[in-house]
Amino acid sequence: MFNKSGLSCLYEKHEATLHKVVALEQALNDRFFGMQDTIECMMLAALTGEAMVMIGPPGTAKSRLIRTFCNLISLVGDDAMTAPRYGKGQVQKEQKKEEYFEYLLTQFTEPSELFGYFDLGKLFGDEKQFIRDDAGMMQKAQVVFLDEVFNASSAILNSLLTFMNEKKYQDRGIVHKVPMRLLFAASNQPPSERGLAAVYDRFLLRSWLENATPRDTGDLLSKAWNETHNTPKSSDGDVDFSGLLDDLVSYRVTVDELTQNGELSIDQTQVTMARLKDLVETMRKSGASDMSNRRLVKFAGIILANALLRCAREQGKAPSIEAEDLSVIPRFGSDGPNSDLKNKSRLDLKQ
């Protein structure tokens, strides 16, 4: 799917970063039970910068996973792991950095709760300045987590579209760029209203979670109890993940540079292209996803990232796009759970 020389060049330039992402993936899997697929999806989101939404019932550790991820990469302190969540007027005092923003959305959430209220002191002061107090707000963060994202009002969702697409937000006609590098969201269920389709489509990566089965109760309790009462500190472990966000951005810059100078390109002669065409047709016919042109193009970057991470996990193998790398499309790109399709596609693509 991608030319082999470009793949090798990209892997060599960022081999250390890829191994660090794999180590982070393992660190998270060591702390959370039954979330391997979601954590794998998170690593793809981190490497590519694509938006990700987790969909599953309450109590499946969606918020905890995001906080742990941010704790390990040193965006939040250890005290934030037990801090109350944002939302409904609560201020998370333990969150002292602007790099991370978390909020619980409801149908009554106003844009000012995300972007900041106007400073009344300055408004009624001598100079009468109409200035928004945006310290610690969403437009200042590098990593954003929006819980129950599909509960938001149309005003919030309209603002979110521009925020997600262009990494900009408009304030009284003025367009501001934002430093956001990663956007995660969570919801108890997928959106049912047609008006939410545009926002849902922008979440390229979707991961579906379920409660553990009764058979897995022991394993769940073992990991969850330790995670809750004996949480490892972010400084623990052999790998230092601080600075990883900068490394991830560097990877994306290299992808652009290699593409611009012709070193990284789509190779239509490879066998995986035929498998990809069949997979897209299956997705559309089964109703799993319309697979719009935009989503298909963006998933090329996900397939690329998946192949490189697979190479880093296996070690010693030359990077290449294999048919099994295409499984990220049904696994993380479907509109619904579609467990049967995901399992069938994963088996078919390994053959």
From TrEMBL:
Residues 341-351 have a biased composition (Basic and acidic residues). Keywords: Hydrolase. Residues 324-351 are annotated as: Disordered. Residues 48-213 form the AAA+ ATPase domain. One of its GO terms (molecular function) is hydrolase activity. PANTHER family: ATPASE RAVA. This is ATPase RavA. It comes from Thalassovita autumnalis.
